Amino acid sequence: MSVNKEIKRITTHTLAELKAKGEPISMLTSYDYSMAKIVDAAGCEVILVGDSASNVMAGHETTLPITLDQMIYHAQAVVRAAARALVVVDLPFGSYQGNSKEALNSAIRIMKESGAHAVKLEGGAEIQESIQRILTAGIPVMGHLGLTPQSIYKFGTYQVRAKEEQEAERLLSDAALLDACGCFAIVLEKIPAKLAAQVTASVKVPTIGIGAGQACNGQVLVVHDMLGITQDFSPRFLRRYANLGEVMHNAVAQYVADVKRHDFPNEKEQY
Question: Which of the residues 9, 131, 132, 166 has an alpha carbon 20 to 30 A from that of 176?
Answer without folding.
Answer: 9
